[in-house]
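Justification of computing resources. Each target in the renewal requires a structure prediction run like the one illustrated here; the chain below, 171 residues long, is used simply to show the kind of job we budget for.
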Amino acid sequence: DGWHAVGGSAGCSPGGRRGGVITAGVAVTVVTDNRVNQASGRGSGGVAVSTTTFDPVQILRSALSGNTATLRGGGIYGGFGTVIVGYCTITGNSAPVPSSTVGGGGVAAMRVVEFTSCIVSGNINSDVMYLSATNVMVSHGYNLVGSGNAISKFNQPGDRSGVANAMLGGL
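Resulting C-alpha cells:
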C-alpha cells in the first residue's frame, strides 16, 4: 500500500519553497498511506505546499520523519493554500532555530494548516509553528502535539499539547 520515499533532496533559488520529496503547486491529495523519510529541501524537508490557486492540499494517513529543512518546515511547510493533515505522524524532523521567518522542525505555516488525529511531537526546533502575524493552525481534535508557538490552537476534544516525548520508535 502506498509508497515510501527515502533521501529526496531539492534545492532552489533563495526565497523559494521546495520540499525534498514533494512540492505541491495545485490542489490534490498529495500523500496518502505513505512514508516520507530522510529528505531535505530549502522550503521544507518533506512536503512544501505552495498552491497558486490557494486550493487545499491533503496529506492523509502518512508518516513524515527524519526530514531536514534549511529554512522552515522540516516535515511540512504550508506556504500558500490550505494544508489538510489527517491521521499522520510527524516526528524526528528538523529546521533551524525558530525566529520570525524560519524554523518549525515539524510543521511551519504561513497559511492555514488543519489537523485531525495527528501526532506532531519529537521534532527538533519546534513541532508546530506559525510564521504569519496570526496563528493559522486549526485543530479538529484528537491531536497530540509537542512544542511551538501554535500549541494554543490544539484545544479541541481529545487534543493533548506539550507532549515532548510521544514514545515513538523508529518509523
